[in-house]
Design goal:
With about 270 residues, this protein is an alpha+beta fold. The protein folds into two domains: about 5-105, no CATH class; about 115-255. It has nine helices and six strands. The protein has a six-stranded antiparallel β-sheet with strand order 1-6-5-4-3-2.
């Protein structure tokens, strides 16, 4: 993991392994992509502004020193666009190449993609709670929220997939009849996961199969960090699938609208 990746996406309190033993100067050279409230919430490049430790201020820090285990460092970054909005991270050294994010101010805003919010309906607030749990490093809680969302919405999502299938995908439609007879999310997905058309597999990856694999994992003996990884996989697979279905649905609507417009144009001639 690069320092930019760590700053941008690592949850709080999870020990993350970086590509190299981190130096203070490495954090000073980092240019993460972060949302800027002053710039309308859009992602912007941020540059290093200042650093502190519990012992000394910026002027007393040797920038070539390795981030020490159990030592807390405060790194502040400034948006290069507006040059006013700043994000502050509290970073604690662990061992070897590992560090953890102990705090972030202001906290990241949780934004749900429009198509996902529409697809989830009344379950959307639970997705927000899942993201908050994920950002705070509460893996078991995040997994539980995402699993609930999948279990309560998988039936309608599979029905939406049927509406955007390419011509000739009879196998999926036949399997969907079996799905309608089941009341268990795992069983529903298992029936159709291998029948997901290539058009809904970005980069050849099957998000429905990934959802099934994650739901098949038993979490009772897993740590918070292990559940955090499962929760992230479940979230990404779900959002990817919803996005692909919404995108293909919009393409179909745009095509139908274009055909209708063409027919009307012909009739007026």
């Amino acid at each position: 993991m690069t320092i930019e990746d760590f700053l941008q996406s690592a949850p709080l309190y999870k020990k993350c392994e970086l590509d190299e033993p981190p130096l203070v100067d490495d954090f000073a050279q980092a240019r993460p992509q972060l949302p800027c409230s002053t710039c309308g919430g859009n992602e912007r490049t941020f540059q290093f502004a200042r650093a502190l430790t519990r012992r000394v201020g910026l002027e007393g820090i040797d920038t070539r020193e390795v981030v020490e285990a159990d030592e807390a460092y405060t790194f502040q970054y400034e948006c290069v666009g507006c040059e006013s909005f700043r994000v502050t991270f509290l970073i604690t050294g662990a061992t070897n190449k590992r560090v953890l994010k102990s705090g972030r101010s202001p906290p990241p805003e949780i934004q749900i993609p429009k198509e996902l919010k529409t697809a989830l309906g009344s379950e959307a607030p639970y997705f927000t709670k899942g993201r908050i749990s994920e950002e705070q490093g509460f893996g078991i809680g995040a997994y539980a929220y995402y699993r609930r969302i999948v279990e309560n919405n998988i039936g309608s999502l599979l029905e939406q997939i049927a509406k955007v299938l390419p011509p000739g995908e009879k196998a999926y439609l036949d399997a969907l009849e079996q799905v309608r007879q089941s009341h268990v999310a795992d069983e529903k997905i298992k029936i159709v996961k291998d029948l997901l058309p290539a058009t809904l597999r970005p980069a050849g990856q099957n998000p429905l199969a990934l959802i099934h694999d994650v739901l098949s994992e038993g979490i009772h003996s897993k740590s918070d960090d292990e559940c955090l990884d499962l929760a992230e996989s479940l979230r990404l697979a779900l959002t990817t699938l919803v996005h692909e279905v919404a995108r293909h649905s919009q393409v179909q609507k745009d095509f139908t609208r274009a055909l209708d417009s063409l027919q009307k144009s012909k009739r007026t001639k």
